[in-house]
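Reviewer 2 asked us to include a model.

Predict the structure of this chain.
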Amino acid sequence: MHSRILLLLLALFPVPPAYAQTGDGCIETVKLERGKRCGSPDSVAYIITNRCNAPLDVRHCAERANGAWSCGLDRGLAPGKLTGGYTCHGTGKLRIHTRPKGSTQRLPEP
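Predicted model (structure tokens):
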């Protein structure tokens, strides 16, 4: 339900694409917002999507203000599906790495 609403909003208010650091062009940053989470003006929230034709395992990380990284892992992110994350005190830098769904290839740390 939430993803349908988000997709409707994105259709009505398109955001220019910004491709994340995957090296393969599969992951697109759909939205990057500052100051909307945790009651903090330096919070960073992001939404990404898989633009390729196959499911991917995706590690997505946002840099915190202290230089550490806040990461999530989505296994088998289907084509066109959305995921994301946030940090309460961030720099706005994202690092995103992918591999084919179910691969045993190690995903790099940010």
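The chain has one helix and seven strands. Residues 2-12 form the longest helix (11 residues). We have added this to the supplementary material.
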